[in-house]
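User: Okay, second chain of the day. Same drill as before: sequence in, structure tokens out.
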Amino acid sequence: MRLRFELTVPNILTMIRFLAIPVLAYLIDAGDAYNTMAFILFLAIWVTDVLDGYIARRFNQATEFGKLFDPLVDKLFQLTTAVMMYVAGRLPLWVPLFILIKELLMIIGSALLFRKTKLVVYAKWYGKVSTVLFVAAFASLFFLPRDQTQLASYIFIIPVAWSLYAYVRYGKCILPLIKKKIQADDDLSDSSQDEDPAEPPEG
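Assistant: Same drill. Structure tokens below.
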């Protein structure tokens, strides 16, 4: 499958969101004086994510590029926010580590799946719910007093639990696809062998 960027509104919004992520990282790291600006940009990034998905579905502007790049930007958005919140002292280390391991496993698993079977698993509803829960948890950190940052560990219990649930659901979704692809390849191989002309007898 060959991907190419198509000039559609959803893809443009995705690119804008991608370019805004480094700015968000800077604002979070800049300190409390930029906290309001950081939150507004954080919210804007999330809103454009919801908006580009709606536009793609409503106006039939979904593209293969958007289906793959949009969730990739979402992962980068979450991971960048988690790392910078940890650097700013608002988040315990285990949260960005969990997100990093989770996303690496998803990326590696998807790459191996595509390499072996040419199958692509796009974001499902339970994956999108996981994103919303993490976004809501991150948003709460902008309003969490510095002397209450220990509450961040409890805030992320539900997003992490749902994320693990989503992993199980993705696994149940992927395994039948792999079995179906393997069966189709086996059937094609058997059909090719049946069509080979028999060698003429000797003598």
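The chain has one domain: 9-193.

User: Thanks, on to the next one.
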